[in-house]
């Protein structure tokens, strides 16, 4: 399989790298995290101008008809620069979900606004005590005339504080299934409590008390909400794997630079063989993570749901473990400096740690893989 960039993808990646090198140093990121919404609005407008926010949105709605490999090129650079804007929750997961399952009216109402940077949409699907299981939410949607009334509480809503619109999962008794609803964040009965996460990015707890939405707010088929939500999360996982691979690559570069300049016993640390071996181990893990991130991107277009799930969970599992290894090694090789604010290594370590937990940690995806039927190739080897 050819994972090399097309000319257009290379140009897009190069443009984003130039932007981040010139305008998004680590100090700018730290300042953005302290902003009211936890990210830079100026950067968000720049992403809209670059076309990043409408990358996978259809040209009919102001986008560029991109695919998962285009998203990979963007997210790799985003991870390399530790961009803290809601690219994945909004431009990848929410936009992809509306593009995939929305009605013409829903696409018209939201996709162009997302592509232009005027609207931020977040997924509200996780609940307390449910970990990563989203299949049977305690949030309920009951019919009342021509409306649905939603009651429940969502946690860990990634960039929920900045969202203008929420896509909320709820148990729909009338359909006896999980359904998804497009809910304005300003709707009566919606309350938001925001908080910072491990890496400084923002999340929110969303409470819905008798929130009334029209029937037209239901996203797609009310009986297929679980499958639609899973498809959105798979896109998010593929993007997150690419971002983590980019962050690992930059962290290794920073570690190499430090070892070349820091001296002990009159010579650079990079001359000590034991330390060189540790950097080599980091490179091996990064390359493994990069390969699995490519696998996750290629999985998005796989028609078979079981095989797609196997590929996505395998990637998330291996990338998460590699991220932890690379992050820990980088901190240790920087010594005491690795845990100070003077260097960016701590920011990267916290980002990689948080990313390994988002959208399912290693244990969760190991359980997913264990629950899937054995693929024919493995079955033949076992036999």
Automatic annotation (TrEMBL):
Say yes or no: keyword Signal present. Answer: no
Residues that span the membrane, as ranges? none
Note the SUPFAM superfamilies from the entry. Answer: Acyl-CoA dehydrogenase C-terminal domain-like (SSF47203), Acyl-CoA dehydrogenase NM domain-like (SSF56645)
InterPro entries named in the record:
Acyl-CoA_Oxase/DH_mid-dom, Acyl-CoA_Oxase/DH_mid-dom_sf, AcylCo_DH-like_C, AcylCo_DH/oxidase_C, AcylCoA_DH/ox_N, AcylCoA_DH/ox_N_sf, AcylCoA_DH/oxidase_NM_dom_sf
Chain ranges of the Acyl-CoA dehydrogenase/oxidase C-terminal domain: 228-367
Which Pfam families does the entry link to? Acyl-CoA_dh_1 (PF00441), Acyl-CoA_dh_M (PF02770), Acyl-CoA_dh_N (PF02771)
According to the UniProt entry, its GO molecular function terms are: acyl-CoA dehydrogenase activity; flavin adenine dinucleotide binding
Which Gene3D superfamilies did the record assign?
Answer: Acyl-CoA dehydrogenase/oxidase, N-terminal domain, Butyryl-CoA Dehydrogenase, subunit A, domain 2, Butyryl-CoA Dehydrogenase, subunit A, domain 3
Record has Cell membrane as a keyword: no
Q: Which domain of life is it from?
A: Bacteria
Cofactor(s) the protein requires to work: FAD
List each copy of the Acyl-CoA oxidase/dehydrogenase middle domain by range: 122-205
Q: Which residues form the Acyl-CoA dehydrogenase/oxidase N-terminal domain?
A: 6-117
Q: Which UniProt keywords apply?
A: FAD, Flavoprotein, Oxidoreductase
Q: Which family does it belong to?
A: Belongs to the acyl-CoA dehydrogenase family.
- Recorded protein name is Acyl-CoA dehydrogenase
């Amino acid at each position: 399989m050819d994972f090399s960039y097309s000319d257009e993808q290379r140009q897009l990646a190069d443009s984003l790298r130039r932007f981040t090198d010139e305008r998004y140093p680590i100090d700018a990121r730290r300042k953005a995290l302290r902003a009211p919404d936890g990210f830079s609005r100026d950067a968000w407008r720049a992403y809209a101008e670059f076309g990043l926010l409408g990358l996978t949105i259809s040209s009919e709605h102001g986008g560029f008809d991109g695919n998962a490999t285009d998203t990979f090129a963007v997210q790799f650079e985003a991870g390399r620069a530790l961009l803290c804007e809601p690219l994945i929750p909004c431009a990848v997961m929410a936009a992809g979900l509306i593009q995939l399952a929305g009605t013409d009216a829903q696409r018209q109402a939201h996709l162009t606004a997302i592509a232009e940077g005027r609207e931020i949409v977040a997924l509200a699907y996780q609940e307390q005590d449910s970990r990563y299981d989203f299949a049977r939410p305690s949030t309920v949607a009951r019919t009342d005339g021509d409306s649905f009334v939603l009651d429940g509480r969502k946690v860990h809503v990634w960039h929920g504080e900045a969202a203008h619109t929420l896509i909320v999962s709820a148990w729909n008794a009338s359909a006896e299934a999980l359904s998804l609803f497009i809910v304005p964040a300003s709707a009566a009965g919606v309350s938001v409590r925001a908080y910072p996460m491990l890496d400084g990015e923002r999340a929110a707890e969303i409470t819905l008390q008798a929130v009334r939405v029209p029937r037209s707010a239901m996203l797609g088929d009310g009986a297929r909400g679980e499958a639609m939500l899973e498809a959105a999360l798979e896109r998010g996982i593929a993007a997150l794997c690419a971002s983590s691979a980019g962050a690992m690559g930059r962290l290794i570069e920073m570690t190499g630079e430090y070892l070349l300049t820091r001296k002990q016993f009159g010579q650079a640390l990079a001359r000590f063989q034991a330390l060189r071996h540790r950097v080599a181990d980091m490179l091996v893990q990064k390359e493994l993570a990069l390969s699995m991130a490519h696998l996750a991107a290629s999985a998005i277009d796989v028609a078979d749901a079981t095989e797609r799930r196997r590929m996505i969970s395998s990637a998330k599992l291996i990338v998460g473990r590699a991220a932890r290894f690379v992050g820990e090694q980088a901190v240790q090789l920087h010594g005491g400096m690795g845990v100070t604010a003077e260097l960016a290594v701590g920011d990267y370590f916290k980002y990689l740690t948080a990313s390994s937990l988002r959208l399912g940690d290693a244990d969760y995806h190991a359980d997913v893989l264990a629950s899937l039927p054995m693929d024919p190739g493995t079955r033949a080897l076992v036999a």
